[in-house]
Amino acid sequence: MSSRPSRLSATDRRQAILSAAAPIFARLGREGATTKEIARAAGVSEALLYRHFASKEALYAELESHCVEANAVGSRLLAEAVPSTATLVRGVALLVQAVFPGIGDARSHDDTKRLVTASLLGDGQFAKAFLDRHVTPWIGVFERSFQVAQGAGDVEDGVHTGSAEIWFVHHLANTLHLISLPDITIVEYGVTRERLIENTVRFLLRGIGLRSAAIDRHYDPEKLETIFASMDQDTA
């Protein structure tokens, strides 16, 4: 006689439904996804799904918080960040490493990017909420760190970098991840993943005006890999 599977608490069941819903919404969009398919993926009945979420729209709305938690990369580093050239360099490296992706659950990163992209093609509400909670705090850290770097002489003369240029750092890194989402190779860069990450970090930092000497002084890919590995364990 087979034993019954253990019952999940209401909270765990709710999280399980959200985890099952994310890839379905990411693949089919808000309109294409059905509660029947989500319930099947979560291993529950539609009736039970509706006990936790009043509607498909309510389920979709809660995915934003769920995805932020699932992709909470670098929260410790952000909390401890002191504006400096080193923080700017390490922060950009962290951003690139995360969105390729490199930290946390790769599947979760991919689903989130697809959800954000689908939102941008729709009403934009999910994308705005996600960026406001997950990215905007980092942009503030980057801006303050750039000002400190400029005062320390680590920025090229005549460079005027503002909020828009700092956001471009995120946009370019995010675009690189979007290109990597399909199972097939869209662009053959001709370098290893590690080299591509390093080239991207240096390109972005030079793009906002940081001097090469400052980048070389603070950017140590091998040392940062150790930091990222410890952060990955913290979010596991």
Automatic annotation (TrEMBL):
Record bears the keyword Nucleus: no
Q: Which Pfam families match?
A: TetR_N
Entry keywords, A to Z = DNA-binding
Stored InterPro entries: Homeodomain-like_sf (IPR009057), HTH-type_TetR-like_transc_reg (IPR050109), HTH_TetR (IPR001647)
Q: Which organism is it from?
A: Gluconacetobacter dulcium
Family matches, as PANTHER family: HTH-TYPE TRANSCRIPTIONAL REGULATOR RUTR (PTHR30055), HTH-TYPE TRANSCRIPTIONAL REGULATOR UIDR (PTHR30055:SF223)
Q: Entry's PROSITE patterns?
A: HTH_TETR_2 (PS50977)
Q: Where does the record place the HTH tetR-type domain?
A: 11-71
Q: Which domain of life does the protein's organism represent?
A: Bacteria
Q: What is this protein called?
A: Helix-turn-helix transcriptional regulator
